[in-house]
Amino acid sequence: MKLPPYWMTRPAPTPDHKTSASFDRLVEQALANGPDEPIDYPIEAPKWQFLCHVADRGGLLLHGSGDPEISRFEPRQPDDSSEFGNRRAVFAAGDGLWPMYYAILDRHRHPMSLLNGCARVADGSERLGEPHYYFSISAQALKQRPWRPGTVYLLPAGTFELQPRMRVGDVMVQPAQWASPVPVTPVAKLAVRPADFPFLRRIRGHDDERVWTRAAADPHGFPWHEEV
């Protein structure tokens, strides 16, 4: 089973064993240092590979923000039409690329709506496929190149609940979204820039009115794909 071709997969290649070992050492050092200062990143491999490694190894979830000084995440009520997302919670991702999208979008200076997702295809067993991504913002905002430096926070996963599997078209997928009903204190953070996000030039633009109309007519039709 496959998702439609406009869903993107992680860029190749995957880190080699030596690089993965360097990532593990950096994670342990970051956890020992704590979240007061951003991670000193001396590794040649791109930051998105490091963040994906952190998420894939388990135990930590990631949250992207434009605020570099968050010491405690409080549950908030998002503007989300999905059953899982329509709750007061701290939200985080079990993936390294997805939170970078939120970190580098300047939504304060450029009002926009977001359509995005990260999921792995479920084949009916416990085995899941590789991550797939979809990123889109309001077309008018996209024209302004609304990027900014941001921060990806590493959060302990203990109080979080994973979003249940859902259907996208003809495919069952496991979303990478997690939610915690209680406050969460980050354990480390990494500064990122727009150039660190490998899908920067592949963020799509959508017409807000068309999306709202399509979503109302077909609430389960995410991502209501169209070219603008």
- Would you list the SSEs in sequence order as H and E? EHHEEHEEHEEEEEEEH
Total DSSP helices: 5
Tell me the β content: 25-35%
Poorly predicted segments: none
Which overall shape is indicated by the principal axes computed on the Cα atoms? globular
| Radius of gyration computed on alpha carbons | 17 Å
| End-to-end Cα distance | 28 Å
What is the typical, i.e. mean, pLDDT? 92
Structural class: alpha+beta
User: Tell me about the biggest sheet?
Assistant: 6 strands, mixed
Give the total of beta strands: 12
Helix percent band: 10-25%
Can you describe this structure?
It is built from five helices and twelve strands. By secondary structure, the protein is of the alpha+beta class. The longest helix has 17 residues, at 17-33. The radius of gyration is 17 Å and the shape is globular. The model has no long low-confidence stretch (mean pLDDT 92).
